[in-house]
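--- STAGE predict ---
source: upstream dedup step, 1 unique chain passed
mode: sequence only
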Amino acid sequence: MTTTSGPITSQQLLEQWQGHRRLTRKVIEAFPDDKLFTYSIGGMRPFSALVLEMLAIAGPGATGAATGKWGEYDDQSKNPPKTKKELLDLWDKATAVIDTEFPKITPQRFQEVDKAFGMYEGPIFWSILYFIDNEIHHRGQGYVYLRSLGVEPPPFWER
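--- STAGE serialize ---
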């Protein structure tokens, strides 16, 4: 076993986030096309709506974390995707934004307090951890949906 000393690096945090995003993408892919936008349990939103929430946070969150320009929270509800392919295309675009914007976050910026999306005040590192936690939470709902549909979800450890 090797050990390292020192704090987690920005690159390590980015890789952790993108690993979660790769897994969530696999969950989207596993959904039957006819259930992705309609299926729900117990009054929860369909998985596509949960994915749109993740998308509203991901790219804009990375940009806001890097620049302090948060814009408005946009859940894509005005022009939502209608197919799995359109949803995956949006996912891939957000991934590219994260890959471009995240490296611009300076070490000092991670410690700065800002108001994400004009609503959530805290240090930037806290906001980024929230973005990741939110995705994990909603992906878990997707796992429940898939299992209830008789679909084996991707292993949660394969990121």
